[in-house]
Amino acid sequence: MNPEDCRYTHEHEWVRVDGELATVGITHHAQDQLGDVVYVDLPEVGATFNQNQPFGSIDSVKTASDLFSPISGEVVEVNGTLVNDPAIVNADPFGEGWMIRVRQSDPAEVDSLMTADQYAEYTREA
Q1: From the centroid of its chain, how far is CA 56?
Q2: What is the CATH number of the domain that holds 90?
Q3: What CA–CA distance (Å, rounded) separates 124 from 87?
Q4: pLDDT tens for residues 73-117?
Q5: SS3 letters across 39-69
Q6: Rounded distance, CA 63 to CA 124, Å?
Q7: Which pTM value belongs to this model?
Q8: H or E element: which one contains 24?
Q9: How many CB atoms neighbour CB 22 within 10 A?
Q10: Across the chain, what does the average pLDDT equal?
Q11: Which domain holds residue 39?
């Protein structure tokens, strides 16, 4: 359920690195816990964030939650489709439900994140 090519945070975000760019979203576990997503607030292109800093928020029928950046860097693309159809996050959290693409400022930060197996164990214990 958790793609092997991603790394994971304790706050249930994932990051998939492709060269200097990294795609960020929330995990299947997170969207399952949230319930039906009704709104996603994402940053503007050009915004910069440090690792673990909030970059936006997500609202569901159950609750509202902050989104935390798994890595430091500059936002180079935002998934604008989520503005009109936030439920894509529920349907495809690791694919079309991605949130932002970031140009990493410190690629070594990815090594501090959980692997798919570590994240699976973490969510089993939670």
Answers
A1: 10
A2: 2.40.50.100
A3: 25
A4: 999 999 999 999 999 999 999 999 999 999 999 999 999 999 999
A5: EEECCCCCCEECCCCEEEEEEECCCEEEEEC
A6: 22
A7: 0.96
A8: strand 21-26
A9: 25
A10: 97
A11: 7-125
